[in-house]
Amino acid sequence: MNRLLVATTGALLLTASGCTRTEEEKHDCEPEAFDLSTCDRSGFASVKAEGIWNLNITLDGVDSQGSIRFLPDKPLLLGTALTVRKVEGDTFFVASDFQTASTPAPVRFVLAGCQAPSPDRVQGEFRRCVNGEADLRGTFEAAHVKWAEGEQQASGVELVSETTLPRGQPVDVFVADGYAYVTALASGLFVYNVKDPAHPEKVAEISPKSDIWYRSWVKGTVLYISSYNEGLLVYDVSNPAAPKRLAALPSPSVQGWGLAVEQDRLFLMSPDPNAEVLIYDISTPTKPALQSRYYVEDSIVGKGQIPVEGVVLNNRLYIGHWRYGLAVADVTDPKKPAPLGNFKYDNATSRPVAVGQIGDRLIAFESSEGWKSMIRALDVTDPQHISQVGQFEMGPESTVGGLTLVGSKLYVAHNQDGLRILEMSNPSTPRQLAYYNTWRETDSGRGQTFLEGLNGVRVPGDGFIYATETSRGLLVFREP
After folding, report:
1. What are residue 69's DSSP bridge partners?
2. Are 1 and 451 in contact (CB under 8 A)?
């Protein structure tokens, strides 16, 4: 996988093997080292290096995403300080120069533009140099992050409240009994009283010690959290203002990611170390009992085929299995899960999943993550013969972070494209009912990673929509 364990493409690239200084001084990342003689650079005259651009870099056929922050305050390229910006005439050349403790030699990232299909889109060559010598070469595409053409801030949905977190970057929210539980990676979890959704009030927070928390789920008075270091965390929230830690499971620990609960069963997606789904009996919610560990037999961990997110409906588990695609299993007997089918596609990055009965068909909505992200409507009525019956996509530079299905309405957290509400009564022709553009490039923290914007969405049935936004925190919406 590209970004599941790192915050930015820049961090990913820094893990690649570096070069050592050769006897002959190299200048592979200087402007004159790029042969652009066959490029059509006439479009660069209309390109403006301003705002925030999302970035897709292709190295040996594998895509990785990042961003460029052209704002005057702290300009960045792939999360590192932007030091060269030549965007004028027929030239698009930007670079960052830096050194770190892990890379004591001078390092440079470079984007050399070859063409600009439009004023807001550039394509060209990417290089990384260590001591002036290129050790990574590939191509890139960059696009200026903007609202979709012709859209206003909102249509068909209104913002009720906005609550910035005290710190950290929120990634998801779960709402139960008038309280919102917001997970925020290394900053842990924040609990808000949302009995008055227009005025959320923080009542508690839990700060982990050198850990990352992804998802949460509440059953009765018990809170479950997926943890990068400890797997499944169990808390007593009979008093939401004073969560009490009860346990961490299993032992030895695993990496936890996605969480799903159906009745008295909990499913923990664990990408590492075994790429498995841990199934717990939670009939006694405070004492989860491990029933089995399910592994998709024909998946290959070394190719990034690992479980990330999942949902359960009517004894079927649907797994967003990253490079594998969608996997479906029968979990009627939680001690003996059995594979039912799968849906694979080229360059899969399968993550968010939502499933429901629509008409006479069972439809799974699955989304890839990354450049050219799209939502696939899959007919899973017969899981041995899954077929794609429809799709929905915005621009190639925005990705889908979360999905929630209520009846035939699909609520989409679409990162920089904000909240999208789709009517899916006919999955082959999705119809957008409403949207809210949450993206503002002037918000704090923008332009540091590709995965920015609205990333989690829940519709608990109280008449409101709850969502998390990387810079703006907890957002509450309402459909008029």
Report:
1. 52, 76
2. no
